[in-house]
Amino acid sequence: MRIGFIGLGNMGAAMAANLLAAGHDVVAYNRSPQKVAALAEQGATAAESVRDAAQADVVVTMLADDNAVETVAFGGADPAEGLVAAMPADAIHISSSTISVDLAKRLAAAHAEARNQFVSAPVFGRPDAAAAAKLFVVASGAPAAVEAATPVFDAIGQRTFVVGDEPSAASLVKISGNFLIASVIESLGEAMALVGKAGVDKQQYLELLTSTLFDAPVYRTYGGLLVDEQFTPPGFAAPLGLKDVKLALSAGEELRVPLPVGSLLRDRFLTLLATGGGELDWSALGALPAWEAGAPHPA
To answer: Is 204 domain-assigned?
Structure first.
């Protein structure tokens, strides 16, 4: 399969490499050409523009936020250079970015009008999972398009969950999942600050948690980062955590679903960013309670 891949950040570079390893023909584009050059050494073809990368059976975008995806999809100042206009008829755009429900709906409508297809397929997993092709893919879209995209999902992930025919459904599920992860980071950080200030060893405490009622990847992964204070380099930067919490709050407002914990998390991320944590991993959110209790700031 000929696959265009746009966005070679921490996640995208590993995903594109796994597509190459699975035998696909990958045409890669990134605003920073050195990242394309590194993938080209593994066998990818370097695209000079979004339009070049769009000449494929499937185009995957793995970008930071709505603005980046919207610019790539709609071409910014020149719509003819965007994915929607440049992709061949019946080609499939797979968005693996965490984007708003509204943008997912607009992309689905625009691709339908252009007579190509759109599948929302965001992923759960950090860069190490992406490198190991162990991501969890959450997909939604027209059943035929999702089926056609399955070889892509198989190459990057360990399991795919299809959650509906409307692409916006997968976007909402991913937003809700990131909201839950942020909730765990905050609550786990508070619990660790409490026991840590009383002199309990945090590593032993985490082992107790993950050996009993809290034996789940989210507690093991983020608990380990908190114990080790491993916030750099960021696997998922703190500003992106704030972005995703704001997406959850926006979706909640649209659906008339109050998210009081979401409002708290927004303010906690703002505190982290306002006090110098903008370059840290979003797990540094969980270090704020200890800082507020007298420990050093995570930055």
So the answer is: yes
Reply yes or no on whether 105 is catalytic.
Answer: no
The verdict on 187 and 52 lying in the same domain is no
In a domain, 277, yes or no: yes
Q: Which structural domain, as residue segments, surrounds residue 245?
A: 173-293
Helix intervals (H) in 82-161:
83-86, 101-113, 127-131, 143-156
In a domain, 214, yes or no: yes
Encode the chain (299 residues) as per-residue pLDDT tens digits.
999 999 999 999 999 999 999 999 999 999 989 999 999 999 999 999 999 999 999 999 999 999 999 999 999 889 999 999 999 999 999 999 999 999 999 999 999 999 999 999 999 999 999 999 999 999 999 999 999 999 999 999 999 999 999 999 999 999 999 999 999 999 999 999 999 999 999 999 999 999 999 999 999 999 999 999 999 999 999 999 999 999 999 999 999 999 999 999 999 999 999 999 999 999 999 999 999 999 999 99
Going through the chain in order, the beta strands assigned E by DSSP cover: 2-6, 25-29, 45-46, 58-61, 92-95, 117-120, 123-124, 135-139, 157-162
Contact criterion met (CB below 8 Å) for 288 and 185: no
Give, for 185, the enclosing helix (H) or strand (E): helix 167-197
E strand intervals along 68-192: 92-95, 117-120, 123-124, 135-139, 157-162
Let me know if residue 299 belongs to a domain. Answer: no
Does residue 233 have a cis peptide bond before it, meaning omega lies within 30 degrees of 0? yes
Q: Give the residue carrying structure tokens 């050996």.
A: 211
* 35, 134, 174, 197: the active-site residue: 174
Number of domains in the chain: 2
Global pTM reads 0.95
